[in-house]
């Protein structure tokens, strides 16, 4: 019985940690401008900066600036890190 209670508490703690992490990611994502959200969506879908620029009608340099802001605001250390964050947010733009 005691082990069942410990397991339930551990599952509850894990779920709470996950929910807190997702909430923090949602808050960071909400801090992005509309354009930054558009850039993030295209970047995590696998497009190159040049392709993102073409899709949005902006220069590649502007894409790089927005992408840098996205990385900073989302606290992503790398592109794969940003992709993982998007997956946790169920990113489907």
Tell me briefly what this model is.
This protein has 93 residues and is an all-alpha fold. The protein has 5 helices and no strands. The mean pLDDT is 91.
Question: Topology of this structure?
Answer:
Layout: H1 2-30, H2 34-44, H3 49-56, H4 60-74, H5 79-88
Helix pairs in contact: 2-4, 2-5, 3-4
Order of helices and strands: HHHHH
In percent, how helical is the residue content? over 70%
Summed up, the helix count is: 5
Oligomer: single chain
CATH topology tier name:
Arc Repressor Mutant, subunit A
Sheet with the most strands, sense and barrel status? none
Q: Specify the overall morphology.
A: elongated
N-end to C-end Cα span: 46 Å
Structural class determined from secondary elements: mainly alpha
What does this entry look like structurally?
The protein is mostly helical. It has one domain: Arc Repressor Mutant, subunit A (Orthogonal Bundle), CATH 1.10.10.10. Helix content is 78%, strand content 0%. The protein contains 5 helices and no strands. It has helices spanning 2-30, 34-44, 49-56, 60-74, 79-88. The model has no long low-confidence stretch (mean pLDDT 91).
Brief descriptors of the model:
mainly alpha, 93 residues, Arc Repressor Mutant, subunit A
């Amino acid at each position: 019985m005691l082990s069942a209670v410990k397991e339930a508490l551990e599952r509850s703690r894990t779920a709470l940690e996950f929910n807190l992490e997702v909430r923090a990611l949602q808050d960071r994502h909400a801090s992005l401008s509309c354009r930054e959200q558009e850039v993030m969506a295209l970047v995590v879908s696998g497009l190159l900066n040049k392709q993102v620029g073409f899709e949005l009608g902006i220069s590649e340099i502007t894409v790089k600036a927005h992408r840098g802001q996205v990385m900073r605001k989302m606290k992503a250390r790398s592109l794969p890190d940003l992709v993982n964050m998007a997956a946790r947010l169920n990113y489907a733009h």
